[in-house]
Amino acid sequence: MTDETHDSPDSPGPGGASAAARAAVAGRFRGLLDDLDRTSGTAVADAATLILDAVAAGGLVYAAGAGHSLAMVCETFYRAGGLACVRPVWDPEILPLNGATASTAAERRPGSGRATVERVQPGPQDVVVVFSTSGRNPYPVEIAQECMARGVPVVAVTSMPASASATARSSTRLADHATVVLDTRVPPGDVVHPQESPRTAAVSTVLGAYTWALLLAELDERAAERGVELPRWVSANVPGGDEANRRNLTHYGDRIPEL
């Protein structure tokens, strides 16, 4: 007999979760990422072309979302390696940190999305990216609808499976008002664990961020082919970062008040 012990697959690990649970969650996430890779190619290329056209024309990329989709708006804005020409579109009422239940009510209230577009005034030289996993609440739907009516191209980052099963709080859905739809493949309800009866481990932020990273990579390749220099933020924690970012602030500061 020895003092050695061996964890079974279901034994709690150092973090308290069983190895089997960790493996199940990891497998589910990786499977969804693989699914996204298989299905997103053409749409990502089309979205990158729209954004490149806007950048080349001196336009802005407006990024909009509500609730937890605002995490994706933050992912696009003032981010190392990200585009410096991004303007975040949001209303304090739809930020959960300002009141969680109030933010849910606000994104369901008709008229708020149109009022937001009226405030920021995007034009045909710009492009608007709207993030909404369900794509069924009035706020994101109205933003896309109003922008399309103004001749502004719209990239919808949404989940078609989640949208198909979501409660319809708008007569149409986000994907109905988009030039290009990027389907994140988030399952209905967002959560993925345990697989037989999911109740935890939301995946929308991971899939949304990955989709945006794919888009930026595609944009980089297409910009190089066309000889367009993309305005990018550099990490402020590397040498020369502050100087590079200062040039972007000078160029875009008067057009992007959030800077």
How does the SSE layout of this entry go?
Layout: H1 19-39, H2 41-56, E1 61-65, H3 70-76, E2 86-89, H4 100-108, H5 112-120, E3 127-131, H6 138-149, E4 154-158, H7 160-165, E5 180-183, E6 191-193, E7 200-202, H8 204-226, H9 241-252
Parallel strand pairs: 1-2, 1-3, 3-4, 4-5
Antiparallel strand pairs: 6-7
Helix pairs in contact: 1-8, 2-8, 3-8, 5-6
In short:
By secondary structure, this protein is an alpha/beta fold. Helices cover 44% and strands 11% of the residues.
Describe this structure in words.
The chain is an alpha/beta fold and 259 residues long. It contains 9 helices and 7 strands, in the order ααβαβααβαβαβββαα. The N and C termini lie far apart (66 Å).
Tag the structure with descriptive keywords.
globular, two-stranded antiparallel sheet, 259 residues, single chain, five-stranded parallel β-sheet, 9 helices, disordered N terminus, alpha/beta
What's the N-to-C terminus distance? 66 Å
**Sheet with most strands: strand arrangement:** 2-1-3-4-5
Overall shape: globular
Major sheet description: 5 strands, parallel
Report the radius of gyration as a whole number of Å.
Answer: 20 Å
Helix content: 40-55%
Q: Tally the helices: what do you get?
A: 9
What share of residues are in beta strands?
A: 5-15%
- Compute the number of strand runs: 7
Kindly report the average pLDDT value: 90
Query: What series of H and E elements makes up the topology?
Result: HHEHEHHEHEHEEEHH
Low-pLDDT residue spans: 1-11
Helix/strand class: alpha/beta
